[in-house]
Amino acid sequence: MASTAAGRHKSRRPWLYGTAAVVASLSTVMATAGSAGADQSKPTAPFAAQANAFGLSTVEAKTLQSRVDTYLAQEGGTQIAANKIRLTDGGVLVLTLPSGHPAYGKDENGKALASYTCDYEHFCAFSGTNFTGNVRDWYYCRENPMPFMGHGSWKNNQTTGTVANFESGDHVSRWHDTGAYTEDDDADWSWVHWVRNC
């Protein structure tokens, strides 16, 4: 009886070791899949190096990412840089960096960007006066939501003569500029709910 029991234990051991190996392998696969899933749902990792290149500390980078995440949750879109979001309307939202750093990061050559360049054929709205603060950069011709409040600024650098309309909450144009190129370094955003850039 004892030898039979011993025989049974011996015959079970390979099966037990095999099961343990399978469980360990599955655990490893699941852990890897879990971390891969976490990386995919959190697209911030690719921008950590960029934030570091901007000169941000770990705390500053996390604060910036938190601001990006807030805008993404509110408005949707896709993060395309440490401080940039491609909005669902096709525009780009550029967030300023923390105080003590170049306001808009650095260009591809590493040059500090203290001011934001509103490219030709674009309309740019700034949350601050004198072309400072967060920027909404629009290229496509459409009615765009204006979330900024208080006083800000804007540049209409679209094709020559393109008129931008500033609309109230009922989508009625209450004021329009004289056509590109035009700008205003102290604009009252309090009544503007929409900007039809062209």
- Topology, number of strands: 11
The overall pLDDT, averaged over residues, is 83
Main sheet attributes: strand count, strand direction, barrel closure: 7 strands, antiparallel
Radius of gyration: 27 Å
Structural class: alpha+beta
- Helix-residue proportion: 25-40%
Shape, principal axes of CA atoms:
globular
Low-pLDDT regions: 1-43
Q: How far apart, in Å, are the first and last alpha carbons? A: 93 Å
Order of adjacent strands in the largest pleated sheet: 1-2-3-5-4-7-10
Estimate what percentage of residues fall within beta strands: 25-35%
Put simply, the count of helices is 3
What can you tell me about this protein's structure?
- By secondary structure, the protein is of the alpha+beta class.
- 34% of the residues lie in helices and 26% in strands.
- The chain contains 3 helices and 11 strands.
- The chain has a 7-stranded antiparallel β-sheet with strand order 1-2-3-5-4-7-10. The protein has a 4-stranded antiparallel β-sheet with strand order 6-11-8-9, with no helix packed on it.
